[in-house]
Design brief:
Elements (H helix, E strand, L loop, with lengths): L5 H8 L10 H11 L3 H5 L10 H6 L2 E8 L2 E7 L3 H15 L3 H27 E7 L4 E2 L3 E10 L5 E8 L10 E5 L3 E10 L4 E5 L2 E6 L5 E7 L3 E6 L24 E2 L6 E6 L11 H7 L3 E6 L5 E6 L8 E2 L2 E2 H18 L3 E7 L3 E7 L2 H13 L8 H8 L8 E6 L4 H12 L3 E7 L28 H9 L5 E5 L12
Parallel strand pairs: 4-12, 16-19, 16-21, 21-22, 22-23
Antiparallel strand pairs: 1-2, 2-11, 3-5, 5-8, 6-7, 6-10, 9-12, 10-11, 13-15, 14-15, 17-18, 19-20
Helix pairs in contact: 5-6, 8-9, 10-11
Amino acid sequence: MVGADSQEGIQRRAVTTSVGEVVPEVRDQERVAARSFASDVALVAEPGDRPSLLRRVIRPWVVWRVRSGENEEALVWRRRLPLVLILVLLVAEWLFPSRVWVTLLLAFAAILVISAAWARQMARGIRVQRKLRYPLVQVGDLLEEQFWLNNDSLLPALWVEVIDHSDVPGYDASTVRTVGAQATYRWVAGGVCQRRGEFHLGPWEAVTRDPFGIFAVVHSHRSVESVLVYPPIAQQLPFSLPRGATGGRAHVSYRSWDPTVTVGGVRAYVPGDPRHHIHWPTTARRAQLYTKEFDQETGGDVWVVLDLSSDVQVGSDGRSTDEMGVVVAGSAAALMLDAKRAVGLVVYGPDRQLVVPGRGRAHLWKLLHVLARARAEAVRPLAEVLEETSRVLPPGATALVVTPSMDPAWVSELLRLRGRGIGASVVLLDAPTFAPRTSPPVGLDPERAGGAAVRRGGAKQWRGLVADGQVDVEIIEAEAPLVLRPPF
């Protein structure tokens, strides 16, 4: 499903070197050369700042500042050496009159005037814009932005630095460009997405200055654009997906006018039926109102329950149980949706996220959207999560639990679900394999894990205990060979 657009993702991944694109070596050189400009932005003080008298004298002066919404434009006097030299030359000419002092005085005055005029042209003529090329990106995909550098002035912009403050891991749009007079320059900035989650593009600044470096023009853009990086999806999982207590349309328990993902048939309209359930083609054909009946496919529904309790997670960055859990949950949902199954999702992060079962590509986007934002910040034990989830699951559904927890308390809740006719399968993330081998798993309570989590291989022993309850348990280690689908 997500792989249907993989060809476009592969094409976007291949970055070619053309006019306006930056190869990594050139980008590194530009970043080193551009660090001196960052001080210009830092020294544009906010109106509320109250620096000392010495700082006011030493630091660059803000000649003028103009704000328009979230954008700001400022002219900064960076170097005052020409002004100091002019004053010194005036004193020298007054004390020791000479044509040398007059010549130098005129030269420095000319430099100051030329620099001011050049900076004013840059302030009026330079405009930089950016636009995200592809709003849907996945881990491993290429995040690209199109930049436009417009110069409407009569003078060339010899140095324009873009200082980007985006927080997307693996992406940095900071660069240095040049553009001729009355010209436009375009380029593409890109970076490979390394982590899932919600990130921000911006704020950012565009800084330019005159050839002598006396004045700087700072264009500040405080607007921020959100970008959501979706988690990767595996082509296959190293275990069989749950089939449910019953399956398929041949095992429908009953029909109802309660809406589900499948329409089972129509019946004559009864006063009180919802109007939006009226089946208009049959009504028009038979000249009588008919309403839709929905199949209650309890056996076909699979609920993926992802445990993101912070006190049982192990590892950091990409090698962690919470990241592996998100990949496994998203991959299982995608594979079952490929098999025309109805899939729901329950995730407890800072807040409970519940997605009712559905089918199709649009439903997969909804599931990935929730998983992309999921964070291991909750402190709710899995036993409480299963107890609350049991109120939502209908008889005949299947719960696929993805967790690194080996706390026996939640096993009892899982067995209660089976007693109500709800199927149960567990994907156990072997927590010790995600921790550094030189130290025990950080953040994992040995008492809550029953003492087995701190020993490598404890997951296999725990699986033997759960097998008595006729619950299928699959173990995923940190080194599990997962072949990911190409980015969409």
